[in-house]
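Tutorial handout. Part one gives the primary structure; part two gives the three-dimensional structure as C-alpha cells.
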Amino acid sequence: MSQISNVGISRKTLIEQTGAPLWVLNYLNANNALPVINPAKGRGFPVEYSQGAVNVVLEYLKTRTLAQSG
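Part two.
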C-alpha cells in the first residue's frame, strides 16, 4: 500500500529517507526552503513536512556535494 500524498512526514522520517544530518534540516527550515503542511503549534508539537521536502533536501545535498568536490 502506498503512502497518501497529503499526509505529512516527520523530521525523523525525513532524516531517515534522505540521510541528511539534523543541521541541514534546521538550516533549510530556518530559510523557509522546506514545504510544510502543518507548522508546529508550539513547543513540543511536531512540524509536518510535505513529501516534496525529501526532494528539496536531496537537491541541497547534491549541490553541496558538487560544490565541495571542486
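Part three, for discussion. Residues 11-69 form one domain. The chain has a mean pLDDT of 88.
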